[in-house]
From TrEMBL, chain A:
It comes from Paracoccus kondratievae. It is found in: Cell inner membrane; Cell membrane. It is a multi-pass membrane protein. The chain crosses the membrane at residues 37-59, 107-133, 145-163, 169-187, 222-249, 277-298. It holds the Pfam family BPD_transp_1. This is Oligopeptide transport system permease protein OppC. Belongs to the binding-protein-dependent transport system permease family. OppBC subfamily. Residues 105-295 form the ABC transmembrane type-1 domain. PROSITE patterns: ABC_TM1. Keywords: Cell inner membrane, Cell membrane, Membrane, Peptide transport, Protein transport, Transmembrane, Transmembrane helix, Transport. The keyword Ligase does not apply. InterPro entries: BP-dependent_transpt_permease (IPR050366), MetI-like (IPR000515), MetI-like_sf (IPR035906), OppC_N (IPR025966).
From TrEMBL, chain B:
Its main location: membrane. It is found in: Cell membrane. It comes from Paracoccus kondratievae. InterPro entries: BPD_transp_1_N, MetI-like, MetI-like_sf. Belongs to the binding-protein-dependent transport system permease family. The keyword Signal does not apply. This is Peptide ABC transporter permease.
Amino acid sequence: MIDSQKMQSLATRLAQPEVKGRSPWADARRRFRRNKAAMVSLLVLILVGLFALFGNHIAAWSNEEMDFSIMGQAAQLGAPSLENGHWFGTDDLGRDLFARTVQGTQISLMVGLIGAGIAVLVGTLYGATAGYLGGRIDAVMMRTVDVLMSIPYMFVLILLLVIFGRSMLMLFLGIGLISWLDMSRIVRGQTLSLKNREFIEAARATGVPAWRIILRHIVPNLMGVVAVYATLLVPLMILTESFISFLGLGVQEPLTSWGALISEGAGTMNYGTLWQLVFPLFFFCVTLFAFFFVGDGLRDALDPKDR
Amino acid sequence: MFGFILRRLAVAIPTLLLLIVVSFLLMYAAPGGPFTQERALPPQVLANLNAKYGLDQPLWRQIVGYVWGIVAHFDFGPSFVYPDRSVNQIIAAGFPVTLTYGGIAFAVAVAVGISLGVAAAIRQNSWLDHLAVGISIGAQVLPNFVMAPLLVLVFTLWLGWLPGGGWGGPTYWIMPVVALSTSFMASIARITRSSMLEVLGSNHIRTARAKGLPERAVILRHALRPALLPVISYLGPAFVTMITGSVVIDMYFSTGGIGRSFVDSALNRDYAVMMGITILVGALTIFFSLVVDVLYAWIDPKIRY
């Protein structure tokens, strides 16, 4: 007697395509999706990004216009209001704070992303090269990193900005100069453990030149570490830029950033214009929070054993 | 141990010299030189000024003179903007203030951070643990330049308890110390908690408990020491960030420390003062990382030096 039910089950089983193997990346994606804090943070980041991209189109005022009916009386007339279109209020010069916050968000995010981008590029190549070549070259390269790290970089950065003029380019260069140091150390460590694996040996045995092994075989295998670290670097870069702008040494008018806006708001809050501090501060804190959570979530997703 | 310290010094001293030379070269490369103003000075005046500050000499002599002045006499030369004040005087005026609140902030961050981290690890998943984790996550996005205005808002403008700036008795110290130490305290607490949890799960702790040691002794004698190693290696970078943060404190609270002089000289393009402070901070940083390394080697018996 043949159990028809079991046969049925076998038939459907055979008809199905073979079970697809799960790549580590798919696993990671699944784990990341289950992490509620990280998913919410990702959503927040997308919203902040949309705010930076399209905020100007919905703002009632441009960031350069001064509302002359409010100028000089920001404390009495400049409070956030729906009627006159200043949803976040105005600053002391009567400029719309909503538009200014959009502008500050654009610049802060840009600094964060570019700073992290430079770190990824330079740090990965430097660390991978040092780790792969090893020996004396490695020692010299990593000593250099040690020396650079023991320099109080914020002071040197300000020195650079003062000497070569305060411009966005100089700011990017200055932040880029320091951001890659940590990255190169992490990447080097990872490279050291990769370079004795069989596939690297195979590549070397078939005569692939060193630079090609680094670019084609080492670097792709570093992507997990690099992605996590880059996500955590973005908020640090934003913090650095905001710090300098808070001191009035970073981005210059008419450009602005979160740090510059927070500095302005903090300077005027005892005149009763609290909204000038609260709105930029809110965006600053929420975005940094979200970046940290997404970074942590990525790390947990890619490295589940380390909780 | 002695050889280890010597070897670390052999790296530290060239690093410092490099910092001095590089910052001098940066200044030398500055477009226009230190006396460039909106109204051009008559050439004779400029030549006299350059002669007074030794800027008319060949580059190598300037560098050697500058390095020699610092190394031999601890002399950073005259200020380029205030002819009657030397860089040493400007630093001497602000440094004690920075050292006072910076030192207190550092001590508070270490003491409170470690206690909080240990307490949270011992009572994992209690309300105290959740509070500690919550604080340490929240404080990540509350750097000193965010804490400072918020503190002033609450304690000066709303409650009127503390003076919003200036330098005087201990009431003037509270807000700078809190603003400066919060994010470090949080980081130290987080690091202590996670490393303590790891140590508490290890074999030697189980042995210590199994042989009937009181919990107090287990924690203090056997768990704390290995658990502190990651904290100690964090102290080096923390020191750098903290001394950087003092710039914000000096600016926002008008405490009159060297941070204020640094930003003022940056706005005045007074290179001599900027370089002096950068080099001083660099020397402190290098010295402190040396101390941290020695401390680390002393606590961790596995380190060979």
